[in-house]
Specification:
Order of helices and strands: HHHH
Helix content: 40-55%
Radius of gyration: 20 Å
Number of helices: 4
Strand content: under 5%
Shape: globular
Oligomer: single chain
Length: 160
């Protein structure tokens, strides 16, 4: 979904900030209290936007039926490949191209993956919001219920 020609060439190879590396000035803004950008959609706006994007994609689909459904699902793989391309470009791993992307490009491509996945889910069911909400609640329960040292399923992680 990114226009490759419009992207300015980055000037330095930098790693994304992690818990063990300090972020560089080139990759992040100065630390501030976490706040949502004023243009960030609320969850209800997110699903309104997903519905609108799904309707637009659906109205402009080149193929119907099973083939159209399969192609819609494959679009997700294309977007994941663009994440990989951006990571390779941000780290300069292609000696022929050098540093060709930034970590902002990686963030943008990850957003494209999320948007494409939500549209794919909406393609499969008109209850995408509810399906996603139930699934997220299940992942949260099995992941975060074990935060106190218990591994989901009753086994200990050895950290206690």
């Amino acid at each position: 979904m990114t226009d490759q020609a419009a992207r300015p060439a980055p000037t330095a190879t930098t790693a994304p900030p992690t818990a063990t590396t300090a972020p560089s000035a080139a990759t992040t803004a100065p630390p501030t209290a976490p706040t949502a950008p004023p243009t960030a959609p609320s969850p209800s706006d997110l699903w309104t936007d997903v519905e609108a994007l799904w309707a637009w994609v659906d109205a402009n689909r080149p193929c119907d039926g099973r083939e159209g459904l399969l192609l819609r699902m494959l679009k997700l793989t294309e977007e994941v490949g663009e994440v990989a391309q951006a990571v390779i470009g941000a780290t300069g791993q292609n000696p022929r191209k050098g540093v060709s992307h930034t970590w902002d490009d990686v963030q943008s491509e990850l957003c494209d993956v999320v948007i494409t996945a939500l549209i794919a889910l909406r393609t499969l069911t008109p209850e995408a919001r509810e399906v996603f909400g139930r699934h997220l609640a299940g992942v949260k329960a099995r992941s975060l219920d074990g935060v106190s040292g218990e591994v989901p399923g009753g086994a200990s992680d050895g950290a206690s």
